[in-house]
Design goal:
365 residues; mainly beta; Immunoglobulin-like; 3 domains; five-stranded antiparallel beta sheet; 3 helices; 25 strands; 37% strand; flat
């Protein structure tokens, strides 16, 4: 969750591990801010206030406050943030090693800079400010619509209605390009600061005919709020993704990291083997539907997009781990991946032994 990530960054700031961080901060980057001048009764450790989401903040957005340097017993339930940008005092709660709160900015805020003070038992211990910008009118967006889409391609649908007077949470997208109506939902992981952002990522229908399709957004009352248009066209000869640039399937030890030049890996019956597939230009509509099949496997193997650290700098790649049938006789068995709507078919081979698996990789052809 982004609040946890912000807390981790805050810890780096406090320990001095992030000295190169932007001193000005940003809506998504925590920054350490000035504490109030200590009094004779101030604690030995000077309180430090870190805000996240305080710059370029829209009315109604959330600001994440973290106060360090005040102990749990010292602050108790008397740590409070005050600002004319907030509807009222906001109490901070204890978590791990600091006090924190999510504070909502008033919808009626005008653009400007608003002071913010954190008090402990009525005494100011830290001060900062929140920079508020103008409200933005509701918007319905489909980022992928800038390009020509492929049948089956996932698309991101987003509705932002953080605007005075907007209500309701039941928003639905309908289109002949979709297999069914799609409900937009709020996701704290992607829209941490905006409580009125709603989204979904459906796939366009398989086998969709070439053409331009209307995508409509409907509100809780069934009224159409907005429309957008997407252009869909299947890949044709000459398009990069018509055949792609595929390699594999490569077979390797699931207990080892993938590397293409390892010696052959030979699993035992009942053991496991991992499959890797590369494609410089994967079909956008097949990225979630690639499978590897083999008479040696207990069933079809779904290959999922690999976005791990190990994939950095590599061609787009897809992987999965299959279980070898326990009743299988030793021998050499084909492993086949079909891609680009049947236009590309490649087969590798796995050698199954009656002995314990040996390490390495088997390259596909």
């Amino acid at each position: 969750m982004k609040r946890a990530m912000a807390t981790a960054v805050a810890g780096l700031l406090l320990c001095g591990c992030a000295g190169a961080a932007d001193a000005g901060g940003s809506a998504h980057t925590p920054r350490r801010t000035t504490s109030a001048a200590p009094s004779p009764a101030a604690p030995a450790v000077r309180p430090s206030l870190i805000l996240n989401g305080e710059t370029d903040a829209r009315p109604g957005e959330l600001v994440h406050l973290m106060l360090y340097g005040v102990g749990r017993a010292q602050g108790g339930d008397a740590v409070v943030a005050r600002s004319p940008a907030l509807a009222g005092p906001v109490r901070l709660s204890w978590e791990d090693d600091h006090f924190w709160a999510l504070a909502a900015l008033k919808m009626t805020n005008r653009p400007g800079r608003y002071p913010l003070t954190v008090e402990v038992r009525g005494r100011a211990v830290a001060k900062d400010a929140v920079q508020v910008v103008r409200s933005q009118r509701p918007s319905f967006t489909i980022p992928e619509a800038r390009d020509v889409l492929r049948p089956g391609q996932p698309v991101w649908l987003g509705f932002d209605d953080l605007y005075p007077g907007e209500r309701g949470t039941d928003f639905t997208v309908r289109s002949a390009a979709l297999s069914a109506p799609v409900r937009l939902v709020h996701d704290d992981a992607t829209d941490f600061y905006n409580p009125r952002a709603f989204s979904a990522r459906p796939a366009l229908r398989q086998g969709l005919a070439d053409g331009t399709y209307t995508v409509g957004l409907y509100g809780p009352d069934g009224r159409r709020i907005a429309t957008r248009h997407v252009k869909v066209r299947a890949a044709r000869p000459g398009d990069r993704d018509y055949l792609g640039k595929a390699s594999g399937p490569d077979l390797f030890d699931p207990g080892q990291s993938y590397w293409g030049d390892a010696p052959p890996f030979r699993p035992a019956a009942g053991g496991r083997v991992s499959v890797m597939w590369h494609d410089d230009y994967p079909d956008p509509g097949e990225e979630t539907r690639l499978t590897a099949v083999s008479p040696a496997f207990t069933g079809p193997l779904r290959l999922r997009h690999d976005d791990s650290k190990g994939a950095d700098g590599d061609s787009p790649r897809f992987s999965g781990t299959a279980t070898i049938r326990p009743d299988l006789k030793p021998g050499r068995y084909p492993v086949t991946v079909v891609a680009h709507h049947g236009r590309v078919k490649r087969t590798g081979y796995v050698t199954v032994t009656g002995r314990r698996a040996s390490a390495g990789t088997v390259r596909g052809r």
